[in-house]
């Protein structure tokens, strides 16, 4: 399990820290990777 701060990824929606604990697989989706870059091209 990994803790992430939703304010870091959605600053327009979270004006204060909102820390949640998610499985490693979900946290991996929040980190930049080569596959995510390809989807935005």
Characterization of the model:
This protein is of the alpha+beta class and 41 residues long. The protein has three helices and two strands; from the N terminus they run E-H-E-H-H. The protein has helices at 6-9, 24-30, 34-39, and strands spanning 2-5, 19-22. The chain has a two-stranded antiparallel ribbon with strand order 1-2. It starts with a strand and ends with a helix.
Output mean pLDDT: 82
Largest sheet: 2 strands, antiparallel
Give the distance, in angstroms, between the N- and C-terminal Cα atoms: 31 Å
**Number of helical segments with 4 or more residues:** 3
Low-confidence stretches: none
| Fraction of residues in β-strands | 15-25%
Label the structural class: alpha+beta
Helix content: 40-55%
Radius of gyration: 12 Å
- The largest sheet has its strands arranged as 1-2
Question: Outline, from the CA principal axes?
Answer: flat
- Counting DSSP E segments of at least 2 residues, the number of strands comes to 2
- Write the H/E string, N to C: EHEHH
Topology:
Elements lengths: L1 E4 H4 L9 E4 L1 H7 L3 H6 L2
Antiparallel strand pairs: 1-2
Primary descriptors:
single chain, 41 residues, alpha+beta, two-stranded antiparallel sheet, 2 strands, flat
Outline of the structure:
The chain has helices spanning 6-9, 24-30, 34-39, and strands at residues 2-5, 19-22.
């Amino acid at each position: 399990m990994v803790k992430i701060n939703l304010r870091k990824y959605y600053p327009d929606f979270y004006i204060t820290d909102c820390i949640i604990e998610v499985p490693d697989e979900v946290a991996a989706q929040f980190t930049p990777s080569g596959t995510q870059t390809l989807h935005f091209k």
